[in-house]
């Protein structure tokens, strides 16, 4: 003979009602956030229709690309890649020691932990474009301030990711050398490095990919590379040169993504 539990059924009904009400409130809140964003950015989809002829006119002016300018664009293209490479390598060199100090499971002291976390947070919070403006005023126009800007910003991004990777690693290879009386340096070189090196290398390759894109934008503030050439061509209404630069940028980004993917596959 079965027996009913009115109290249990009532509690279950209240729980379901509460869950339904909560989902409704969250849905309405999400819609309100989306609507306010449309209002703040002054989204007007109809302007795309009325202004479509302007985009068509731009494309017509930009075709065919001015391939006669290609030899002159080889050096700026090399600058763009080297700015990203310099910024990534320099950022990794600075981020590795900071990330070790910022990892709670291996840092030697809490004071160093909070200090390194603060440095990483500051480097990440300031956009790379602002860093580029700052370094342009310090060292002048050219690729060097762009490389410095990417290096400092990479410290913030890589330092955080490196620190989280170190914190989430398996501690067994670290504890074993410690129990045998190994020094802190030996523990680091024989325990920490082999455990996290593949992951850190993959993260570094991702950052190089991102820095190649960022180096293009930094050229808009005088940091050299194809970005500076693109801004100059647009200001001079050289649309055929603009289309050539966009093609070169596309090829560079595509090659960088493919090479990065190949390297990560080999590491895996």
List the main descriptive attributes of the protein structure presented here.
single chain, 268 residues, mainly alpha, MetI-like fold, 2 domains, 11 helices, extended
Brief characterization of the structure:
This protein is mainly alpha-helical and 268 residues long. The chain contains eleven helices and no strands. The longest helix has 35 residues, at 6-40.
Alpha carbon gyration radius: 26 Å
* Beta strands, count: 0
Structure classification: mainly alpha
Give the percentage of residues in beta strands: under 5%
Major sheet summary line: none
Q: Show unreliable segments.
A: none
SSE order, one letter for each helix or strand: HHHHHHHHHHH
Topology:
Elements lengths: L5 H35 L4 H6 L1 H11 L7 H33 L7 H16 L2 H12 L3 H25 L4 H8 L4 H35 L6 H11 L3 H29 L1
Helix pairs in contact: 3-11, 4-5, 4-7, 4-9, 4-10, 4-11, 5-7, 6-7, 7-9, 8-9, 9-10, 9-11, 10-11
């Amino acid at each position: 003979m079965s027996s009913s539990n009115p109290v249990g059924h009532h509690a279950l009904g209240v729980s379901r009602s509460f869950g339904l009400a909560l989902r409704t409130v969250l849905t309405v809140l999400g819609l309100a956030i989306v609507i306010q964003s449309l209002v703040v950015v002054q989204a007007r989809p109809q302007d795309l229709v009325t202004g479509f002829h302007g985009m068509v006119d731009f494309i017509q002016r930009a075709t065919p690309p001015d391939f006669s300018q290609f030899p002159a664009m080889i050096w700026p293209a090399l600058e763009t890649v080297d700015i990203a490479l310099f910024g990534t390598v320099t950022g990794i060199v600075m981020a590795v020691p900071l990330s070790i100090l910022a990892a709670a499971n291996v840092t030697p002291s809490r004071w160093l932990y909070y200090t390194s976390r603060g440095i990483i947070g500051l480097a990440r919070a300031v956009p790379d474009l602002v860093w580029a403006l700052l370094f342009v005023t310090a060292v002048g126009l050219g690729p060097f301030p762009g490389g410095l800007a990417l290096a400092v910003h990479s410290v913030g991004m890589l330092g955080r990711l490196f620190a989280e990777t170190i914190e989430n690693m398996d501690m067994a290879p670290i504890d074993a050398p410690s129990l045998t009386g190994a020094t802190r340096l030996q523990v680091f070189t024989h325990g920490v490095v082999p455990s996290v090196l593949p992951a850190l290398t993959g993260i570094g390759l991702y950052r190089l990919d991102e820095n190649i894109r960022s180096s293009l934008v930094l050229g808009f503030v005088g940091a050299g590379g194809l970005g500076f050439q693109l801004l100059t061509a647009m200001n001079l209404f050289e649309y055929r040169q603009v289309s050539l630069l966009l093609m070169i940028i596309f090829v560079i980004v595509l090659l960088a993504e493919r090479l990065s993917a190949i390297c990560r596959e080999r590491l895996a």
